[in-house]
């Protein structure tokens, strides 16, 4: 009885393209080391509202029906629409100054109230939190609050300066040109000291010269 010689795998020649592609496509099982030490997915970053940010408002068109409504109201009772309906000759009259004084004072009170709440929050003792990860999260939130309050502190300074400008009769006029800043810009940013054109020139200069 004759024996048929068996060819070795090395002598059998290269495998077919189909076999090669199938071997390449076969999934490899992850090693136990990779599963244990692979980085865990990071949680989504938290976002915190910044109350110090000043949101620009779209311009409001003057309503001719409100042209005389301001005459029978005090400055603190005026609405934005009634303010914008006042003639240009009444720019920064006593009622408009009273309107902005009231708005600035209310903004100042809100910021001071927020600062008091932050102080109470920061007094919480994080050492009583047993989990180091939770304690680190609380400390990060405290750091974010401190940065927010720092921006608010700068805004408080601007508000105090604006109130002083009202008392001095300089409020509403550009520091560089002396021209009116405009009601629309002051409604969007009550602490503005430059007209829109002067502000744009300053920003362009800062971009060009870096100062």
UniProtKB/TrEMBL annotation:
InterPro entries: DksA_N (IPR048489), DksA_RNA_pol-bd (IPR012784), DnaK_N (IPR037187), Znf_DskA_TraR (IPR000962), Znf_DskA_TraR_CS (IPR020458). Keywords: Cytoplasm, Metal-binding, Zinc, Zinc-finger. Residues 1-61 are annotated as: Disordered. Residues 14-31 have a biased composition (Low complexity). Its main location: cytoplasm. Transmembrane segments: none annotated. A zinc finger (dksA C4-type) spans 174-198. Residues 96-166 form the DnaK suppressor protein DksA N-terminal domain. Pfam families: DksA_N, zf-dskA_traR. Residues 169-203 form the Zinc finger DksA/TraR C4-type domain. It is found in: Cytoplasm. Interacts directly with the RNA polymerase. Belongs to the DksA family. HAMAP family: DksA. Transcription factor that acts by binding directly to the RNA polymerase (RNAP). Required for negative regulation of rRNA expression and positive regulation of several amino acid biosynthesis promoters. This is RNA polymerase-binding transcription factor DksA.
